[in-house]
Amino acid sequence: MSCAQTIADYAFRSIGYGERLLPRSDFTLCKQFTLIGSGMIWNIYFGVLAMLIGFVIATAVAVGKGSSNRLTRKASEWFIFIFRGSPLFIQFFFAYFLFLELKTVFPIFSPLTAAAWGALIVLILNTAAYSGEIFYGALQSIPKGDIEAADAYGLSGWSRFKRITWPTMLRLGWPAYTNEAIFLFHATTLVFFAGFPARQQRGDALYYANYFADKTFNPFIPYPILAAYFILLTLIVIWVFGRANTRLNRHLPQDAHRKIRYRPQLLR
Amino acid sequence: MNIYFAVGTVLLLLAITAPTALAFGFGGASAARSSVAPLRWIGKAYISIVRGVPDIAFFLFFVIALDQMFEYIRHRWKCPEWTDPVYQGNDFVVCTAAKLPLGSAPQWQHETYGFLLAVLTFSIVFGAFAANVLFGAMRAVPKAQLETAAAYGMTQRQINRRILIPQMWVYALPGLSNLWMVLIKATPLLFLLGVEDIVYWARELGGIKTPQFTDYPHGDWRMWYFGALLVFYLLFTKVSEVVLDRIMARLTRGQATAAGEAQRKAAA
Asked: What does the domain layout of chain B look like in residue ranges?
């Protein structure tokens, strides 16, 4: 079987198109590259969606934690504490069994027992808590002068938040948020190892890498392939966030830009 | 009953891994600072390779890789007359005398061996992170202090032992406590490494029990078990936070940092 044929068969295997059976013998490099790459579709799906939706919630949580209203402050603090204080792995397990339980009572929850929705929700809430804390820190370190200047210009309430507070918060929190994004993509590999079933063996990149390592008893090929894919993904994330960083700081003198450094954390 | 034992396993893992990882980290940081070029390269490569590659891929990889490495070394040692390659098709074959642990060994040896492999893996991965923190901390100790020590006629070794190492902890502690939190949250991944830990038992014990097999039949309680684990980790995190704050306050005493200055003012 030629390599082009393999790619045609397996490139979209992880989302259910192409060959149904996974290769059982003759594990060529081409097959491993194609299938692990196919699994990356899931990692990107989880990462991108969780980041976009989580960003909105994170802003709300950060503002909530900084608010003077006791109720919203406490609620945001607890939300952040629960999601940052416990392992993501356990959160996945708990959520999966919670959804299973809910499904028996309310059938409306049944899509949530599939990884595509249930795990996505967990990831959204998790990243919202982590980035909420980052944005809260940024919110606390907004220069006092900026706010005073906004007051002097007659800005207040929503328009002050939209035009001064929020952009400054993003600017200050951006380097840390970049790391959080990288870290979120890495965390997506946990999904199929934590309760959520991979129906018809449609898994993510690590799922397939693990499959090959189990079948060949040789971890030295699939895992480095996986690592290469992830390093590539990380570089893309850094590039995209670097562009956003430049845009956020475009009014500042060019050399004042804070470089984003790649400082990943391993696990959450 | 086993789940209580498994909590012990987790605590034991933390108790062994933390000092081992610190030792790895200390070695890595010292190597990266060394004046001997090859040693410095090894130290830096160790830090950047382990930190750069994502996630649990490392955990899954190292356990098989270390196992195969040990078996291969023993294989070369015990069976020199064996000429077949170890990778035969999809199998990894060593002579029976080199199997680790021996095929005839009792069950507890297999479990202990698996556990030790997991400890070693955790130590290697977290050691690299600790090395990075300690490397930064060693550089943060004010240069003037080291130069003063040299001016007093201390040798390099004396400077390291009396000035550098006692002082670096206060700079290293924020990073190390962060690492400790990450380590706590990484412990459920033991499950993926094939150790029968709390996640394993929560799944086993929580699953549906029918009256045929047990005296205490119940429905699907896995949700509650994982909820309990979630609370366990939250409490553990909270306790660690309190303890680490105390240690930080103790270490800051009399240091030339902002916090140390504040402490002095408060006491005066």
From this structure: 2-258
Per residue in B23-51, pLDDT (tens digit) is 888 888 888 887 788 888 888 877 776 66
CATH superfamily of A27-256: MetI-like (1.10.3720.10)
Pair B32, B40: CB distance under 8 Å = yes
CATH superfamily of B2-258: MetI-like (1.10.3720.10)
Nearest chain A residue (CA) to B93? A217
Which residue of chain B comes nearest to A209, CA vs CA? Answer: B57
Domain ranges of chain A: 27-256
Cβ-defined contacts of A57-60 (< 8 Å, 24+): A57/A124, A57/A125, A57/A128, A57/A132, A58/A127, A58/A128, A58/A129, A58/A130, A58/A131, A58/A132, A58/A134, A58/A135, A59/A132, A59/A135, A59/A166, A60/A132
**CA of A247, closest CA in chain B: separation in Å?**
27
Residue of chain B whose alpha carbon sits nearest to that of A235: B52
ipTM, 2 decimals? Answer: 0.72
Average pLDDT estimate for A18-44: 80
* Cβ pair A266:B129 closer than 8 A: yes
CA distance B199 to chain A (A): 8
